[in-house]
Write a structure and sequence with these properties.
With 77 residues, the chain is an all-beta fold. The protein has one domain. The protein contains no helices and seven strands. A four-stranded antiparallel β-sheet has the order 1-7-6-5, with no helix packed on it. The chain is globular, with a radius of gyration of 11 Å. The two termini are 20 Å apart.
Amino acid sequence: MTGFPAPEYYGEAVEVEYEDSKCAYFNGIQIRSVQTPGQDSCVFYELPGCEGPAVIGTGNTPDFPFSIRSFVCHQKQ
């Protein structure tokens, strides 16, 4: 995940290019999930250049969220 291209507009949703059963991809970079108990409608990802975890909007799946749609990045200070 080194060199992850952070979104140009921080705080806005960025569409994920595509996903498989385990990870989402943005600009060809794999975004791995860090699953959080009790989260079924979004999952958190650690992204370089982002402050704290980015929130990824997903399909409302109770198990692993297979339908990852977008993420929001807050720029590190």
